[in-house]
Design a protein that fits this description.
Layout lengths: L6 E5 L2 H16 L5 H4 E5 L5 E3 L2 E3 L1 H11 L16 H9 L10 H15 L4 H8 L8 E4 L8 E4 L4 E3 H7 L6 E5 L12 H6 L3 E4 L8 H6 L3 H7 L4 E4 L2 E2 L2 E2 L4 H7 L6 H8 L10 E5 L6 H6 L3 E5 L6 H14 L3
Parallel strand pairs: 1-2, 1-9, 2-5, 9-10, 10-13, 13-14
Antiparallel strand pairs: 3-4, 6-7, 6-8, 11-12
Helix pairs in contact: 1-3, 1-14
The structure holds guanosine-5'-diphosphate (GDP) and calcium ion (CA).
The site of guanosine-5'-diphosphate has 25 residues, from helix 1 and helix 3.
Length: about 325
Amino acid sequence: MSGTPRIVVLAGGVGGSRFVLGVRAALRARGIDDTAAALTVVVNTGDDLWLSGVRLQPDVDSITYALAGVNDTERGWGRQGDTERVNHELQEWGAGWPWFTLGDLDLGTHLARTGWLRDGLTPTQVLERMSHRWDLGARLLPMTDAEVDTVVVLEDGARLHFQEWWTRHRATLAPARFENPGVEAASPAPGVVEAIADADAVLLAPSNPVVSIGPIVSVPGVRDALRSTSAPVVGVSPIVGGKVVRGMADVCLTAIGVDTSAVAVAGLYGARERGGLLDTWLLAEEDEAAAAEVAGLGIRSLVRPLWMTDAARQAALGAAALDAAEV
Ligand code: GDP
Ligand code: CA
């Protein structure tokens, strides 16, 4: 391919950010210095919420901090070296959620964002402004400018914000379903559909299929854009050896009646040639035996190492995804 390729990645938070780091590294390894011109990340905003008067965007922040190199890699969320003085004070006031920690540096992000939202900027404009602080090497777009938080509906009809279900209850309450109220009326954020339409490759990060990729493709217009782009659509399995690597995708998949397996997730996304989203599915070496079944779904499968446990493995996976898309 001549010139700068245009790569679009759909991503959630932690799995998403590791993959995006890998794609950025793989682009750099191909001699593309201006990765910000090459790489657009459409980020899940279904985890977002209002708390203590500020707007939190967990997946947006995970990706921003990871690309900036200021994320807490040990804890897996928030800023490196953060403190919790403000959080402690909020708890003394009985404000916010006692089981939900907001770091001081992180709160700086939320305050800046909320201030700009209050000034009338859209979430897309806020994210663009926030992207100037660091050299992220990618353009970040929220999936939508609308507020479509994720609600977990339990068997007894109780409704919890996704963050409460996950952070407070550690996904121990069996969900009946997940809802994104208002998503039917939402539109893709400006630039999302265009980026997908003009892409040379669209990559689905190994993010949670139900609560990260699910909300993005539920925004009306995104699925059609994926279906109609001339770019190959390559997905990476978040399930390795029949297990979630980290997080609660198994509980989420069970709730929607999908097995925790690489094949079942491929089936959930579906083959583009049969009305679904995928041309190619990257399977872990541990799931090699499932390749024929994936092929039976009408999706080409490629067996690759899918662990993203260090920078070298992330870059190798990024390169494998770009190769699969013939970039
Ligand atoms: P969240 O928004 O922070 O929950 O993160 P994502 O939705 O982006 O990613 C969570 C998913 O990433 C989990 O379901 C994991 O299965 C997947 N994941 C995490 N680490 C790895 C890895 O090293 N390899 C692969 N293939 N998937 C991973
Ligand atoms: Ca998330």
